[in-house]
């Protein structure tokens, strides 16, 4: 059942601390990432010259976070390819390309076909799948299961964050396999990963505060979501979530790109959700927020607790995120974005779990 919640989506959002723990803990031995159960040899993590992530929808958005992590920490190039487009751009993959296929259902035909093609080209492959024994799991050389449990709501939430959790584990194991990090750095990264469930729980405790933030969006026609880097990656997912369950038009825009594109569309009637979680991006992001504020936009700002903000007056809608090391801030921030989408849908009286025209599993190309 729905565990006492009106919709599965809320239940599944609330389950995240638990399922993240269930996804990471079995893969940590002596404080270090461990894929011996999965039988993944370090060699394939060590030898690859680049990575190609293949996925659709939410799973592809998880891949974008993985790309940032791996490029920053391992220093190899990562492509994230929409599976449905993979074949149409003459994909260049070979034995030096590690393919990571991400899929909740493990049955998405676009992802499956792209994975099979890459394997024919000689690429080693790992899939990140939620449903045990699914086609994509069977079609890949190695599989790491997300232990999210059954996800019933069509809009994905806990599958996404468990996919992220696996990508942190892969990043850390890759650093280990390549001898890139001192022991201390590895252990502190893994500690921070293990802190994710408790930090998520803290955010979930503030559900009613997030419900009030959702009120800013409830009657909007259009919403923009802006951020840079990792903040942008999670906003792509936050924006998809809002569109999927509330039918409000929403666009995630890299904040630096806004003035090269559609800033003219931002008016007093366009709420803007801004996420600022990365120290190195903060000042640029804040100045982009000023640009939309000067066009009258009401801004919902997600920022780390203890960040100072001047001009208190202008910041009427600020949500303070519990602090983690910057690469992990996507975890608490994602929960807030999921809940915003959920509450908008709920307050509109929509069928949150079954958005019109969407299917949980898509097995046609
Ligand atoms: C879509 C679903 O059709 O497929 C999305 O509606 C999902 O929610 C996407 O993200 C990919 O699905 P999967 O199962 O491959 O992760």
UniProtKB/TrEMBL annotation:
The keyword Transferase is annotated on this UniProt entry: yes
Residue ranges annotated for the SIS domain, each copy included: 40-180, 213-355
Gene Ontology molecular function: carbohydrate derivative binding; glutamine-fructose-6-phosphate transaminase (isomerizing) activity
Assigned EC number: 2.6.1.16
Coiled-coil region: none
Key word Transferase present: yes
The organism's place on the tree of life at top rank: Bacteria
GO BP term, pick one: UDP-N-acetylglucosamine metabolic process
A single cellular component GO annotation: cytosol
Catalytic activity entry: D-fructose 6-phosphate + L-glutamine = D-glucosamine 6-phosphate + L-glutamate
Keyword annotations of the record: Aminotransferase, Glutamine amidotransferase, Repeat, Transferase
UniProt protein name: Glutamine--fructose-6-phosphate aminotransferase [isomerizing]
Native source organism of the sequence: Parablautia intestinalis
Whole-protein coverage range: 241 to 605 of 605
């Amino acid at each position: 059942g729905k565990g006492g919640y009106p919709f599965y989506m809320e239940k599944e959002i609330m389950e995240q601390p638990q399922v993240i723990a269930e996804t990471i803990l079995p893969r940590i031995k002596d404080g270090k990432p461990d894929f011996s159960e999965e039988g993944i040899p370090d060699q394939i993590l060590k030898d690859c010259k680049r990575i190609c992530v293949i996925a659709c929808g939410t799973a592809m958005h998880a891949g974008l976070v993985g790309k940032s992590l791996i490029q920053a920490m391992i220093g190899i190039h990562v492509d994230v390819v929409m599976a449905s487009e993979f074949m149409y751009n003459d994909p260049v993959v070979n034995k030096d390309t590690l393919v990571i296929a991400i899929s909740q259902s493990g049955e998405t035909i676009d992802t499956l076909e792209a994975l099979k093609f890459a394997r024919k080209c000689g690429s080693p492959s790992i899939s990140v799948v939620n449903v045990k024994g699914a086609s994509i799991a069977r079609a890949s050389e190695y599989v790491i299961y997300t232990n999210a449990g059954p996800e019933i709501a069509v809009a994905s939430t806990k599958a996404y964050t468990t996919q992220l959790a696996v990508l942190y584990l892969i990043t850390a194991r890759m650093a280990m396999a390549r001898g890139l990090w001192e022991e201390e750095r590895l252990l502190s990264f893994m500690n921070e990963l293990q802190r994710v469930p408790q930090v998520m729980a803290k955010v979930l405790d503030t559900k009613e505060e997030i419900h009030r933030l959702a009120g800013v969006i409830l009657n909007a026609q259009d919403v923009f979501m802006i951020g840079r880097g990792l903040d942008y990656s999670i906003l792509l997912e936050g924006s998809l979530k809002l569109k999927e369950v509330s039918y409000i038009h929403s666009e995630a825009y890299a904040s630096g790109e806004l003035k090269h594109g559609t800033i003219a569309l931002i008016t007093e009637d366009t709420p803007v959700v801004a996420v600022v979680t990365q120290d190195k991006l903060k000042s640029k992001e804040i100045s982009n927020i000023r640009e939309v504020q000067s066009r009258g936009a009401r801004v919902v700002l997600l920022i780390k607790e203890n960040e100072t903000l001047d001009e208190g007056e202008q910041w009427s809608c600020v949500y303070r995120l519990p602090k983690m090391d910057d690469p992990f801030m996507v975890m608490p921030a994602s929960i807030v974005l999921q809940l915003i989408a959920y509450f908008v849908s709920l307050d509109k009286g929509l069928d949150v779990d079954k958005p019109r025209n969407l299917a949980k599993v898509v097995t046609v190309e």
